[in-house]
């Protein structure tokens, strides 16, 4: 049976089984490297991108997986992170949660709002922590 997520706009990929999850975890652990230059940095062995926290590297490692854990119900595109699926879903639904305080424009992504504020209004837009990932 399909398990819906993201308000029904996404579904857990039935091909991403528990066995696959364990295998991915084992592979991920093989690919974690602590930087020799800076022991507080964690480096991806696949692409050499570095992270300040282990959990950020763990999240990043999902992008190298062939099996996507979550699928968009509109177009079938796969994602390994529910936030990425949620952000993608806005391209189909037209939801624009990031509103400019200085004009009537709104955006599907925070970075688009920040870019707009800087280019159009000359203002650097900053968010409180909880407003970041809505």
TrEMBL record:
Domain C2H2-type, chain residue ranges per copy: 42-69, 70-97, 98-126
Annotated PROSITE patterns: ZINC_FINGER_C2H2_1, ZINC_FINGER_C2H2_2
Subcellular location: Nucleus
Keywords: Metal-binding, Nucleus, Repeat, Zinc, Zinc-finger
GO biological process terms held by the UniProt record: epidermal cell differentiation; negative regulation of cell differentiation; negative regulation of DNA-templated transcription; negative regulation of multicellular organismal process; negative regulation of signal transduction
A GO cellular component entry from the record: nucleus
Main localization (coarse): nucleus
GO terms, molecular function: DNA-binding transcription factor activity, RNA polymerase II-specific; RNA polymerase II cis-regulatory region sequence-specific DNA binding; zinc ion binding
Keyword set includes Nucleus: yes
InterPro entries: Ovo-like (IPR027756), Znf_C2H2_sf (IPR036236), Znf_C2H2_type (IPR013087)
Domain of life, source organism: Eukaryota
Signal peptide interval: none
Similarity section: Belongs to the krueppel C2H2-type zinc-finger protein family.
Name of the protein described by the UniProt record: Ovo
């Amino acid at each position: 049976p399909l398990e819906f997520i993201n308000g029904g706009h996404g579904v857990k990929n039935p091909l991403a089984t528990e066995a696959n999850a364990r295998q991915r975890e084992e592979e991920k652990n093989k690919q974690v490297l602590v930087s020799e230059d800076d022991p507080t940095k964690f480096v991806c062995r696949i692409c050499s991108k570095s992270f300040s926290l282990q959990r950020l590297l763990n999240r990043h490692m999902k992008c190298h997986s062939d099996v996507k854990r979550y699928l968009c119900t509109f177009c079938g595109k796969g994602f390994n992170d529910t936030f990425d699926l949620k952000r993608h879903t806005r391209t189909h639904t037209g939801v624009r949660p990031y509103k400019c305080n200085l004009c009537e424009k709104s955006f599907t992504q925070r970075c688009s709002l920040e870019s707009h504020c800087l280019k159009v209004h000359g203002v650097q837009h900053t968010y409180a922590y909880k407003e970041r990932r809505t």
